[in-house]
Input
Amino acid sequence: MIKTTFTTSKFVIEYILIGKGSTHIICFHGFGRRAEDFEIFESLLLPDQQIISVNLFAHGESVFPSDRIECFPLQKEEWKQLFSDFLNFLDVENFHLVGYSMGGRVGLVLLELMPERVKSLLLLAPDGFKINLIYKFASETKLGRSMYKYLIDHPGWLFQLAKALNRIGILNDKLHRFVHVHLDTQTKRQQVYDVWLIYKNIFPDLDALAAYIRKHPDFAFAMVFGQFDSIIKPKLGLKFCAKIGDDRSMHTIHSGHRLLTENTILYLRKNQLWPH
Output
């Protein structure tokens, strides 16, 4: 594994290289995770394949300009140009895409922006099929941002609320744990705030994507969801299947939200879903 960075203007993209092939598979991790998560898929690589696993902004050493986070977040066309520069730097023309959770949303947007360069798209428990109302409130309204800023330094009330909602059955045990895992330190709470704002405009046009997939039936597109995932539920994938008029791209495995596991590797290998 090789870890390095690409720097342009005020942006830094940190990434790792796994394998040495000339067929490139670009991977995006989930929120709070890291590029190294995709090392587990090294066993699936064919001799001519290489994984380029990218750290999203506000993760690892990838840097988005701090003075822009609140006033001028990342724009779609800007992301397209930045990623094109990154690809040119790596001398990559066409590539496969794999995205997990939040990385799935980023992958969907890249397919929308540069479909001529994307050879296939594999999504694992992907975000991007539904805009969470809490996310929308916290990232797009002044009141929501003010409330979340207060939460960064004063989280007690949130944990008490989550505990009460869990006790009466409104917030299930998995989501209750999710709140604590991602918000239990000030650093993590700040990361949530930064990531929410940086990527608030990076959501896919699902109708446009569905039209593209319908028009290109040979395009290799697959989604894998955890049957017991309470964070990103499989029914979201089924709704997108309805848009494209084909449910063959939908796969559900015996798992929760954590899909970067040996169980997933076995499923991808058995069903020939890994890019090839």
The longest strand covers residues 11-18.
